[in-house]
Write a structure and sequence with these properties.
Strand order of the largest sheet: 3-2-1-4-5-6-7-8
Structural class: alpha/beta
Radius of gyration: 28 Å
Shape: globular
Helix content: 40-55%
Strand content: 5-15%
Number of strands: 25
Largest sheet: 8 strands, mixed
Length: about 775
């Protein structure tokens, strides 16, 4: 089997199939997207329309629109012979057994021996789908259940059939993990596999408890959201998002196909959901469900009257008291300990979810950790059920639950007889309690997925302060780790960077700048900046900016290579940190941008200088070339606070260079960055000299940009203060009011950046923008 699929056929151009094809394109894997033929005109109109809609989908399914070229379209009647040129066929049509089998008969007529065939089904038995097909088909057949939307949801459940060859399973695991960036969970061929089985149960119990305890819909969503480490969608918003009709179908499917499940009755849709489906109030796609948007207000359903009303803010003092606690398990423990309405709801919900998940081992999986992974990767829970259970104390939960009459499987009793009494044991390695062997085993790990948490357990940090640490990644490579709140950049991070570089110069071959928080960095700590600006501490602000400039420029000036490893939000100062490094290894899902204008500032950590240099360098070989297109690109990227929707788009924005690497699996970014450091070191790395030849356009360029600003303000596209910021930015990008185009050095542009930044801190409207961002997390247009 090939290391990478040369071509994939995706059967079904609906929401899931088209987005699977899009994600294959994101991974640079060509595909053909097939659907039913149209009877008139373009025979492949259905698939072609789905292909066109990919460009409009929100959030974007494609990294860049250019990737759509990797997707061909066709139909099931005229183009099934194309399956013969594919080494993987993915079926993603409606959940109808007879439809799927009929389609597989067409596939079997054209596929070549050895071609892998997989189904994206979530509710039909694989054994029924593969029955009657020849041996080669059955041996190369399995389930690959992508979660929606495929680009963003990390989970890929892989379900081997009874006859699936081990090498086929291994091939899909490798392709899904390293090429598609998925978290792979191996599930058994049971209804709805792992994620939807456990997730649906938890949702059903939450709905039943709402009715029993008389809570409102928004109260349940509040208690099943970030308060306990789950997404903001909670329970009812999630139903509206996926479709209440779909949610009811999944519940019915589980009820019908699990006659032996002791919790079977829990899966019957309650009266509220049933009535919504009956009325066609399917959620977001129908314009109404549990919630309904009217104008700018989102109303909520009154379950008694079926009228929509304004939402009331949930009031739970026990939850408010622990909102600043970062650890979800500690938050939940404190809420349960406090008692009250929140605890009355959460205790039975969590108790029953724990008991249900434990009882599904070994029915849906032999290893409970697969359940934790499925819920984290497929439902975006911060902690899987067994991780949260560990955090609350396994024995404490079991004793209280048994007092309520809830029982647990024998393997839980066996765990409680161990000295650890814990599902996981984390020391130098991570071990888990094997339910079958009744003993602790090493948790399977991938050497390419480095864990900073485990590395720090194995060897203490070399240097550390409250906001940053220097740790040893092995093989002579160090890592500068940020661990402040939201990884915002503060004086302690700046100080640690200088200490870290000195240590690396002495004892290491190079350094990675990376971490494993939710985001790489959201930029500077605005609270401290606002305090200083309000107090008029201009010298302190100037010194802070100088220190940050020194941090970003010293990365490239170091005699050892420094490589950034960004992921998720990498904004403002966080982006400037990356721009200052020798190279970048970015996760595919990295959102990079210089967004300082949103808080009334411009980038002053070398970002304005660096983006200018990268946008005009293509003109460097022709002294007579017009460089203004490059200057304008830099101006628009910074002035409009553009954020890339992917690392690939950051490449188009010149934030990343062609020599930088994009890694589909974010869990491998640190490892790849480490390898890049080693590669640079092995080839005789030498720090580049400071640039003295950055082209600037002077007064002529400044005039062009300021005319554009005047036109935009006159047309109402920007505010008066946006224009003020634009003039400051254009002044820096053009090298000031020089009377001719010329070249300047880095220090010259850094001085202009810093002067503009400090002067803007003195503006009341800038302080208003900073204050609004701190309060609302949204930019203010004043």
């Amino acid at each position: 089997m090939t290391d990478k699929p040369q071509r994939v056929a995706v059967l079904g151009a609906g929401t899931m199939g088209s987005q699977i094809a899009a994600h294959l394109a994101n991974a640079r894997i060509p595909s053909i997207l097939l659907d039913l033929p149209s009877q008139e005109g373009d025979r492949s109109a259905i698939a072609r329309q789905a292909w066109k809609f990919l460009a409009k989908r929100k959030p974007p399914a494609l990294f860049t629109l250019e990737r759509a070229r990797l997707i061909e379209v066709g139909n099931f009647e005229d183009d099934m012979d194309q399956v013969g040129s594919c080494d993987w066929v993915i079926e993603a049509i409606a959940e109808k057994l007879e439809w799927k089998r009929s389609l597989f008969e067409k596939v079997a007529a054209h596929r070549q021996p050895g071609t892998v065939v997989s189904t994206n089904t979530s509710g039909l038995p694989l054994s029924s789908l593969a029955e009657g097909f020849d041996e080669d088909f059955r041996r190369h057949f399995l389930g690959t259940h992508f979660f929606n939307p495929p680009r963003y949801m990390k989970l890929l459940e892989v379900i081997p059939g009874e006859e699936t060859l081990p090498e086929v399973l291994a091939w899909i695991e490798r392709i899904g993990g390293s090429l598609l960036g998925k978290g792979i969970v191996i599930a058994k061929d049971r209804p709805n596999f792992i994620g939807n089985r456990i997730g649906t149960f938890a949702g059903c119990r939450a709905m039943a408890l709402r009715e029993e305890l008389g809570l409102t819909i928004e109260e349940v969503d509040f208690l099943t959201g970030p308060a306990i480490g789950r997404p903001k969608t909670g329970t009812y918003r999630l139903g509206d998002l996926v479709g209440n009709d779909v949610m009811a179908y999944v519940q019915h499917n589980l009820y019908e196909n699990l006659p032996e499940d002791p919790w079977r009755e829990s899966f019957l849709p309650d009266r509220l959901l049933s009535e919504l489906v009956k009325r066609g109030w399917a959620g977001r796609k129908a314009g109404r469900g549990f919630y309904r948007k009217v104008g700018s207000e989102i109303l909520v359903l009154d379950p008694e009257t079926f009228e929509y009303r304004s939402q009331t803010k949930p009031e739970f003092p026990s939850v408010a008291a622990v909102k600043e606690e970062p650890n979800p398990a500690r938050r939940v423990a404190a809420i349960l300990e406090a008692g009250g309405r929140a605890a009355d709801f959460l205790w039975p919900l969590l108790r029953d979810t724990f008991a249900y998940a434990a009882g599904r081992v070994p029915e849906i999986t032999d290893e409970f950790y697969q359940i934790d992974r499925a819920m984290r990767w497929g439902f975006a829970w911060d902690l899987g059920p067994f991780q949260l259970w560990d955090g609350l104390g396994v024995e404490r939960v079991v004793e209280r639950a048994r007092g309520d009459g809830v029982e647990f499987p024998d393997w839980i009793s066996a765990l409680l007889e161990t000295s650890r009494q814990s599902f996981y044991v984390e020391k130098d390695t991570v071990r888990y309690f094997d339910a079958g062997r009744r003993s602790y085993q090493d948790l399977p790990s991938d050497p390419e997925k480095l864990s900073i948490k485990l590395l720090k357990r194995q060897k203490p940090a070399i240097l550390s302060n409250p906001s940053a640490s220097l740790i040893d990644l092995g093989d002579g490579v160090a890592c500068l780790e940020f661990h402040s709140k939201m990884n915002s950049l503060d004086p302690q991070i700046v100080a640690m960077s200088q200490e870290a570089l000195a240590e690396v110069e002495r004892n290491f071959v190079g350094m990675v700048v990376g971490n494993q928080g939710r985001d790489f960095s959201v930029g500077a700590n605005l609270f401290f900046l606002l305090q200083a600006a309000t107090a008029g501490q201009w010298d302190q602000i100037d010194q802070s900016v100088r220190a940050f400039q020194n941090m970003t420029t010293s990365f490239r000036a170091a005699s050892k290579p420094v490589v950034a490893a960004p992921f998720q939000r990498t904004l403002a100062g966080g982006c400037e940190v990356c721009l200052g490094c020798d190279a970048i290894v970015a996760a595919a899902e990295t959102y990079l941008g210089l967004v300082e204008v949103g808080v009334g500032l411009i980038p002053a950590g070398g970002g304005t200088m660096e983006l200018l240099a990268r946008n005009v360098e293509e003109f460097s070989s022709d002294p007579g070339a017009d460089r203004m297109p490059g200057v304008k690109r830099a101006f628009q990227a910074i002035g409009m606070a553009k954020v890339s929707s992917s690392a690939d788009e950051a490449l188009e924005m010149r934030i990343l260079r062609a020599s930088d690497r994009i890694e589909m699996d974010g869990d491998r970014v640190l490892f790849r960055a480490k390898k890049r450091v080693l590669g640079l070191a092995e080839t005789g790395y030498q720090a580049p000299p400071p640039r003295t030849d950055i082209p600037v356009e002077g007064a002529s360029g400044l005039a062009v940009l300021q005319v554009g600003l005047h036109l935009m303000k006159s047309a109402g596209y920007i505010s008066e203060y946006d224009a003020v910021l634009g003039r400051k930015l254009s002044y820096v990008l053009c090298g000031g009011d020089l009377n001719h185009s010329t070249t300047v050095g880095e220090d010259y542009l850094l001085d202009l950046e810093r002067e503009a930044f400090v002067s803007l801190c003195g503006e009341e409207k800038t302080r208003q923008r900073i204050e609004a961002m701190l309060k609302t997390d949204k930019p203010l247009r004043n």
